[in-house]
Design brief:
Elements (H helix, E strand, L loop, with lengths): L3 E2 L5 E5 L2 H4 L12 H6 L17 H15 L3 E5 L2 H4 L9 H16 L3 E7 L5 H4 L8 H16 L6 E6 L1 H9 L11 H24 L5 E7 L3 E3 L4 H24 L4 H11 L8 H5 L5 E5 L4 E5 L8 E3 L17 H13 L5 E6 L16 H19 L4 E7 L18 E4 L5 E4 L1 H12 L1 E2 L2
Parallel strand pairs: 2-3, 2-12, 3-4, 4-5, 5-6, 6-8, 7-9, 8-11, 11-12
Antiparallel strand pairs: 1-15, 9-10, 13-14
The protein binds the ligand N#[N+]C[C@@H]1[C@@H](O)[C@H](O)[C@@H](O)[C@@H]2O[C@H]12.
Ligand 8P2 binds next to loops.
Length: about 450
């Protein structure tokens, strides 16, 4: 492959989320979130870890911005904690919470780092969960009002807005499988939650347009392309249904204004209809300015009768390289999903809002972390992104997950995804990994070694 040189204005970034890095879980007037409640519930999180302190970013954000400058990232994607700003989810504003994000944004701008704010990265105010959470249609309305507050407060300071991060995970890990907060286990509830999440996205887009704000608004979806294990009709069918379950179930409403027909029918036949109202799909499919794509791996799927609504199972790719999460390393999947989204759903700009990997990182006595595997993982995925760019995909930027090691949800602190190593046991000291130094060169040169 010829030299891989990205456009000069390509947005190289890194990403985090509030609950995973901030800590200060009950400080300065912050309200409880469903993840505070979930992580404080025995048995939910590996090693009994919580986000009470996390990376202590709430107090160490200035140091973290200095590290961002050292790496040279051009943009920083982070989420704001809804309950830190609106402790009850609506009504009373916690000014100290809002002021934290004002300081963060001001310091990012001074460092010439462009903020990308994700309004919802899973930490719902517990007060709203007590009223049904995302199963309650009113939560969509409260989300839109929270968005309005943020748009107005950061008007002219922030010009990249993401409404939701990975609504599939919120709906299914949080409400069908119970692995995430709030921990319910009902598939039909997950479908109702998915609908209200999408509705709230559209409502927030309406407000963004109504306020006539500078900047762009989009949504971030976790997209995991499914490939049939064999070329039999049944394997192809099984892969297609699982692909719809994870990808099209969100892509299609946002860009086509309807749920995937066949899967919608399967759900209705087996589970009954979830509740919608006339006009919902029009709201959900409001025109957006970009799509954020989180890519980590693919699924290889084979037919398995009676196993689930899809008659499908995901094949464990034992003989393939994988990350500490057990996810197959499959860079080609990034190219495939970028091209497919551009071809089948939208010609809007795309951002890779998350891509990265957990590996067994070790801090040496010299304060080094030789994470060669992460360098190789990122380099191989950058090459696939470049290939998609050269093939005409309007890819605008790439946010590595993650800026720093952090609270990896049900895995607690056992998985390290960061470019920056966090020494949790020793005052949350930060160390740039070799991958951070490598990334700095990629950003400086705009080039990846072929
Ligand atoms: N697991 N994993 C890593 C990463 C997670 O830490 C992020 O919060 C999510 O947006 C997405 O799932 C990806």
């Amino acid at each position: 492959m010829a030299k891989i040189i990205f456009p000069e204005d390509f947005i190289w970034g890194a990403a985090t989320s509030s609950y995973q890095i901030e800590g200060a879980f009950n400080e300065d007037g912050k309200g409880e979130s469903i993840w505070d409640r979930f992580s404080h519930t025995p048995g939910k999180i590996e090693n009994g870890d919580t986000g009470d302190i996390a990376c202590d970013h709430y107090h160490l954000y200035r140091e973290d911005i200095e590290l961002m400058k050292e790496i040279g990232i051009r943009s920083y994607r982070f989420s704001t904690s809804w309950p830190r700003i609106l402790p009850e989810g609506k009504g009373r504003v916690n000014q100290k919470g809002l002021d934290f994000y004002k300081r963060l944004v001001d310091n990012l701008l001074k460092a010439n780092i462009r903020p990308m704010i994700t309004l919802y990265h899973w930490d719902l105010p517990q007060a709203l969960q007590d009223k049904g959470g995302w199963t309650n249609r009113d939560t969509a309305k409260y989300f839109a009002e929270y968005a309005r507050l943020m748009f107005e407060e950061f008007n002219g300071l922030v010009d990249l807005w993401v409404t939701h991060n990975e609504p599939w995970v919120v709906a299914f890990e949080g409400h069908a499988f119970g692995n995430h907060a709030p921990g319910t286990k009902d598939f039909k509830t997950a479908l109702q939650v998915a609908h209200h999440l999408l509705l709230s996205h559209g409502m927030a887009v309406d407000i963004f347009r109504e306020e006539d704000l500078p900047g762009e608004i989009g949504i971030t979806l976790n997209l995991t392309p499914a490939y049939p294990a064999g070329d039999s009709e049944k394997d192809v069918k099984a892969a297609s249904l699982l692909d719809d379950y994870i990808n099209a179930w969100f892509l299609s409403p946002v860009f086509k204004g309807s749920y995937p027909e066949e899967l919608h029918h399967i759900y209705e036949q087996n589970l009954g209809a979830f509740t919608t109202q006339p006009g919902d799909m029009d709201i959900i499919s409001r025109d957006i300015d970009f799509l954020g794509i989180n890519y980590y791996s693919r699924m290889v799927v084979r037919h398995k009768p009676g196993d689930n609504l899809f008659n499908a199972e995901v094949v464990k790719m034992e003989d393939r390289p994988s990350t500490e999460m057990g996810w197959e390393i499959y860079p080609q999947g990034l190219y495939d999903i970028l091209v497919r989204v551009n071809k089948e759903y939208t010609d809007k700009p795309l951002y890779i809002t998350e891509n990265g990997a957990a590996f067994d990182d070790k801090l040496t006595e010299e304060g080094k972390i030789h994470d060669e595997k992460r360098i190789n993982y990122l380099g191989d995925h950058f090459k696939q992104a470049y290939k998609a760019l050269k093939d005409g995909v309007p890819l605008r930027g790439y946010y590595v997950w993650s800026l720093m090691d952090n609270f990896e949800w049900a895995y607690g602190y056992s998985k390290r995804f960061g470019l920056i190593y966090v020494d949790y046991e020793n005052g949350n000291r930060r160390f740039l990994k070799d991958s951070a130094l490598w990334y700095r060169e990629v950003i400086e040169k705009g080039q990846v070694e072929a």
